[in-house]
Amino acid sequence: MSESTDDARVDGPDSGPDIDARPEQSAEPAGDATGEDGSASDPEFDPEFDPDDPFGIGDGLGLDIGPLTEPKAAAEQLAAVTKERDEYLDLARRVQADFENYRRRVDAQRIEQAQRAAESLVAELLPVLDACDAAAAQGAEDVEPIAASLFGTLAKLGLERIEAVDAVFDPNQHEAVMQEPAGDGDTGTIVMEILRAGYQWNGRVVRPAMVKVRG
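^ thats the sequence. predicted structure below, dont judge the formating
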């Protein structure tokens, strides 16, 4: 009896696995990367991102940029902010100018008050100088160094003696207590004699000179 090779097939030890046997692959499509509420699950996603203002310019200027298709509205808002800035800048400049004027005025008043106080003190010392002058006129030579020292100290601070002899009478600097008739050739009132010395303190008359005039 003969054996048919077509009806029987012997698997030998060298027989390999069936080449069509492959693991099944999942045919489920990949889902979208979105959350339950439809928002993107990308960790870098910014829900406040404004596509009309991608660089956040409006946030920095306090403007509502709006759609890029509305440049006129953005220009008007920018003009309004610029105007407001200029108004505040002008106000700040005016306030600064007012403060500078106030400071200069206060400094001037402080200086004037100091000068007035010194002038008042000098006026109180003038009788002492008068007494020294009277004593020196009577021949008291010991008084002259004291009078010269006192007057020299005050002169360094601004005291000046009004020189009036042969000068034209000035009512701002002279006080006429005696008068003689005008002489030949006199064209005005002339100071003939000083009866009591007059003084100025830093250009301001502290006491006018008491004089005798002619004319």
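The longest helix spans residues 71-137.
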